[in-house]
Structure formats: C-alpha cells, structure tokens
Amino acid sequence: MVTFFIKTYGCLANVADSEGLARYLIDLGCAQVSQASEADLIMVNTCAIRDKAESKLYSYLGQFAPLKKQKPYIKIGIIGCVASYRKKELYQSFDHLSFVYGARDEMPVLQSYLVDAIEKIAVLKQLFFQDPDGDLGGKNGQDRDVKELVAKRNISKFLGGSPRGNALEEFLMEAVPSSTSPEKEQSLNISEYNLKKHIQDGMKKAQNNASPEVKRSYINIMTGCNKYCSYCIVPFTRGREISYPMKDIISAVIKDIEMGSREVTLIGQNVNSYIDPETEARFPELLKQVAQIPGEFWIRFISPHPQDMTHDLFDVMAQYRPKITAALHFPLQSGSNRILQLMNRNYTSQEFLEKIGWIREKLPGAAISTDIIVGFPGETEAEFLETMAVVEQVRFDLIYPFIYSSRPNTKASLIADNCLLVEKTRRLEFLRKRQIEIAVQCNSAHIGKNLKVLVEKRLARGKLLSRTEGNLRVLVDGSDDLIGQFVTVHIKETGPANMIGILVS
Ligand code: SF4
After folding, report:
1. Helix %, strand %, coil % for the chain, to 5?
2. pLDDT, tens digit, for every residue of 58-100?
3. Residue ranges per structural domain of the chain
4. Virtual CA dihedral for 411, 414, 415, 417, nearest 10 degrees?
5. How far, in Å, is the centroid of ligand 1 from the Cα of 269?
6. I need a surface site. Which of 34, 138, 251, 347 has the fewest CB within 10 A?
7. Going by CA atoms, what residue is nearest to atom 8 of ligand 1?
8. The whole model's pTM is what?
9. From ligand 1's centre to the CA of 311, what distance in Å?
10. pLDDT in tens, 307-337
11. Whose alpha carbon is nearest atom 2 of ligand 1?
C-alpha cells in the first residue's frame, strides 16, 4: 500500500484543500501517515502570505533530500500558493522534488497526476526492495536518476516479461517532470475547475485519526479574491474569485453532518463576496440555507471583508443564533485612514467602527477577532497609535498581529519603507502586550456564567479542550465520551488564552 503525508502551511483554505486531497488519496487506496519519514508520497501545501512562511518552507523542504536518497521511489511534491508562482525556482533549487502544482487551477491536474504517481510509486517501491544491486536511486537519489536507471536496465526481469511488464516499462519511462521542464508543467493549467468534485472531496476529514477529536468540516465555498489589497499575494496565487454552486455546498454540508460533523466552517478569501453562480444568491442566503439543515451543529465562516459587510448578514446570524455562531473574524489591518488607503482596503476606520456597532447591536456578546499589520511601509508612530485607538475602542477578543511582510508582485512592495525592523518589532510587542491585558479583562467577564461549549479533544496535560460559541477556549475535566458533545460548563477561572470550567451538564 502506498502511504502519504501532507504538511499544510497557511490558512483554512489550505487546510480544506489538504483534507480534500487526503480524502482523494484514501479513496484511491492509500494510507495517511503522521510522519513524513514513513510516507511514500509527501506533499507540502504551501502559504505565500508572508515572507517568513516561505523561508520556513525552504528549510523544511531541504530535510527531504536525504530521505529521497535513502528511498528513491518516494515522490515529494509542492502544492498551494508558493507553487503557483515559484514553480521554476522550486524545480531548480530542489532536485529531490517530483512535482509542483499551484493553487486552484492546477488542482484537478494534480489529482490526475496522483493517480499515475501512486501506481509508479507502488512499482518502484517493489523494484527497490527486490533490486539485487541496490542502485535504484542513482547517485543522487533523484527521479531523473530513477528514469535513467530504468532506461539502462532490463526492467522486465523484475516484472516477469509480461505484457503488464512492458506496459509498466513504458509507464515508468514516462517518469516525472524534470527540472528543465517547468514550462511544460505550466502548460497543464486548466480553464475549468471541477467544482463539485473538489467540494465533495474537500468536505470530509480523514477518518483514521488515532486520538479522538471532534469531527469538523471545512468547506471551501469560493476561492480567489478580487480585492487586490496592496500587500497581499493571494489574488496572484489563487486568482480571481470563483464561487461554488450553493446546491453543491449544501449537499457537502448535509453529508458531513450525516458523517458526524459537529461544526461546519465555510471558507473563502472573502466570503461575503460569495454569489451562487446558478441563482445569484448571496452569502447571507447561503448561510440561511446551511442553518436550515437539520441537526445539532455549529456554523462558522472565515473571512469576511469589512467593505462588504451588510445588515442582512447580521440579521441572518441573529435569526439563527447560536447555530450560526456569534463569532466574527473582522480584519481591521490598520486604524489609520492613510494606511488603509495605501493598503487598498476600501474602508475607513470610522466605517469599520460603525460596522462593529452593527455587530454589537444585533449580536450582543459576539466574539470579534481581527488581523492587524504593523509596520506597513511608511507607517508612522502616530498612525500606529491610531490603530491602537481602534483596538482600545473595539476591545477585540483575539488579535492576530503581524509585522508587514513584502510580497512579490504586490503594489505595497514598491512603496519606500523607512521604518526599521526593530521599531516594527517594538510596535508588535506593544500591541501584543496590550491585547493580553484586554483578553484577560474580556475573559474575566465570563466568570460565574454557564456557557454552552463543544468539547474538542483531550490536551496533553489531561484536561479536555472545549470552545464556546465565540470560539473561546474552555478547559474542563471529564471523560473522553464528552468529545464531540455540546455541554454546559460553569466558568470558574479565566486567563488570557484559556478559561477553566466545571461541567454542569
Ligand atoms: S481581501 Fe485583501 S487580504 Fe484578503 S485575500 Fe483578498 S487581497 Fe488578500
């Protein structure tokens, strides 16, 4: 049996893509393993959003060179956003790579490549273990050496000279893309995405988890983005927006609920731009339809864009609360209007705050999280303090703060940046420190309350991890039987990251 391992970097859209591929490979008869060293097929799903993530990827990839040398039959591939725009460099820099397929358009091409690759791996693995000379991998253990080796040796001696053997010889000779042919790979782009298949493949979590964990469903409702924020590489890696048919999304959710999912997260780069290609229904209608699916489960979505937030979204959320959880990820990015304009965010801090007011009015007690970029090119201390003023006013439950990272092809990468990294780091730490204080205060407001939570899994230190409707973490004592159950807990203590509760029901 061919074993596979997928390492996923980046956002939930990547998580959903990896899960879809895992499901696809399991359906093809492969087994998922938890260590790359045990896998015959290794895929790294990449994130291009920040320079740091990309650097991490390169050092991660380097460690597979000895593995490929040791086991030349394995295939190592790069997929996702970095693969979309660094294909040539990846092939040139890493001889041990067998394939590179970018996000979105190349996914169906990748799926058909995998069908062939799995059969090749199975045969090469067999040859490797039968090889009396032990030189299947050639001097560097690369696929190209395997190809040469198969060409110069009488492969039929391993395959019994059967017609099947001849077919396999041809099959092996076709081998894998070489480092000199990235252009050929690029020509494999397809124009049509097999949406239904992708959604259905992507909807189910691999079911061979060893430790019990709540079943969750991550469903891509759209992909790509038309916003072109000046700092963001996503429109270049995932392309323009494509929304998937609502009926396919609904049937994916129904199937997942039938299979035991207790939480469904609808994913898109900009979910409130969603528009059903068949009926032109918008995101609030999709949310309503999902909420009307029978069963006890929670619905979340990520991410909305503040510019596209409309009253009807909050009306639907209020109508179906708590099935649609009152938890919003609402990315601010900056509190300075000048910086927001440079970022091409299409809202002002005043408009952002106005929409926060809508949330507070229609969804009292809603948990709000956000992303903030500090040190955008040219950001002054005064502009950073404008961001802090919004933070003080909103009092977010959670902030994901980042230092600006210059990305290729983006407009922001052309803006002169005279702010030193040391200063950016100071701003980041200042924001982080203040947010911890705010989170402690926000969480302490829950002491003495009874809250409904969904129990997720057991943590290494023995407690059960559960989450509230607002996605806040609550640790409780209890048996594994509670995993996947909705229960009520009484909040006894709180800290910046976790609350401690006692089981009530
Ligand atoms: S909305 Fe902006 S930040 Fe988000 S994916 Fe689109 S371009 Fe990137």
Report:
1. 45, 20, 35
2. 888 888 988 988 888 899 999 988 888 888 888 888 888 999 9
3. 3-186, 193-325, 450-503
4. 130
5. 6
6. 34
7. 232
8. 0.74
9. 22
10. 999 999 999 999 999 999 999 999 999 999 9
11. 229
